[in-house]
Amino acid sequence: MKFIYTSDIHGDKKKYEKLIELCKELKINNIIVGGDLFHKHAKERIPVQIEFIKGYLRDYYKKLKDNNINYIGIVGNDDLEIPCEIYYEMIKEFPNVHSVEVEPYSVDGISFIGSSYVLDAPFKRKDHIAIEEGLEMPPQKSDVIYVDKCQKEISVDEWKELRKTYPRMEDIVASLPKGKDGDKVIYILHDPPANVGLDYCIDGTKAGSKAIYNFLKNSNAYMSLHGHIHESYLLSGVWNKKIGNTIAIQAGQSELGDDYFVYVVVDTSNDSYDRYSIPL
Predict the structure, then answer these.
(1) What is the pLDDT of residue 254?
(2) Which residues of 224-239 are buried (b: 16+ CB within 10 A; e: fewer)?
(3) Model confidence, pTM
């Protein structure tokens, strides 16, 4: 199976359109997107994301269907939970679109299985958040925290207590579905693993998950695809790493409005994977 992998598009229409151009140019019929699909730079993010889903993204998926392009992916932590509910309903219109954090998808001998959860980060919106054994709450960048699908405002002190009730990443990955018998398994996990250079943040911290690392090390999966931290490759110089028998890929991405686009072409038939950064 051959596919183009990217992540963290954040509603950038140029990047979405570039994916179609690349599919036609490279004669590839499969796109994989590792989360953060909708706009994040908006004061009223929920209505902006809903409008994007019902408008541009619905038209985009129709264009993919018309061009015989299969779309497989997950949402990310910046894709808020209320818009995601609308997104999951919208994609039911398109048999070529598969959100694998909802239901695994098997094609061409590959089982795709996903999770959108990320570890608690300094950001004020707490959708798709998990905690991890032994990991303290990171310093928060805002005095206001939004919880309950970003509909409730609480203080940082209140969040420090509430977060203890959130799901543990160890349990999330342990409960992921199994692949179809005989398939190679590819996990699409928005959060990158710790310990292998795929999780470097601009402020010098490393934000990857030890639970994901341990899970992949023992999973015997063929590949894992990650996103979330745009700048990691620019800081560490690492975009892929073998964890046990699993090839972990975190290609990085430009920010919204930047004039370049990052993607990886994977061919499972010959175990090849190559990273590209091209102008938009």
Answers:
(1) 96
(2) bbbbbbbebbebbebb
(3) 0.97
